[in-house]
Design goal:
By secondary structure, this protein is mainly alpha-helical. It folds into three domains: 53 residues, no CATH class; 43 residues, no CATH class; 29 residues, no CATH class. Helices cover 45% and strands 8% of the residues. Strands 1-2 form a two-stranded parallel ribbon. Strand 1, helix 2 and strand 2 form a beta-alpha-beta unit. One of its GO terms (biological process) is DNA integration. This is Integrase catalytic domain-containing protein.
């Protein structure tokens, strides 16, 4: 998943001894697995885990889960996997390409990414990213 994310966003996989990418997660089973830990270690990715029972430290992903619940899951009844996949994929395209985000200066995530890739984020945004 991380390799695909790096490729999709044209982010070079980190090299060298100093981690240049930080990934913050909860303590879910996929993030405490040996495979995930080895991947982070091999590619010098710093894996920051939030303490248990502290969702406020991962507020952006918690907000995302609330939004997708309200704007996608509650709007559709899924009878089978392919139907769920279709609607969630369609929603993710909307979320990333057309839905405006107040925290991103009322741009979609892809608009924001295209505007700021390869540059420093605006100072007022740095604390939120």
């Amino acid at each position: 998943m991380l390799t695909e994310a790096f490729i999709t966003r044209n982010i070079p996989i980190p090299k060298g001894n100093n981690p240049s990418i930080i990934i913050r997660t909860d303590n879910g089973p996929q993030f405490v697995s040996k495979h995930f830990g080895e991947f982070c270690s091999n590619f010098k990715i710093y894996h920051e885990r939030i303490p248990p029972k502290s969702p406020n430290l991962n507020a952006y992903i918690e907000s995302f889960h609330s939004i997708i619940e309200r704007e996608c899951y509650q709007q559709h009844t899924f009878s089978f996997y392919e139907e769920a996949y279709y609607w969630i994929d369609k929603y993710m395209d909307f979320y990333n390409n057309r839905r405006y985000h107040g925290s991103l200066k009322y741009m979609s995530p892809n608009e924001f990414y295209e505007l700021y890739k390869g540059t420093e984020y605006p100072k007022e945004m740095a604390l939120r990213l």
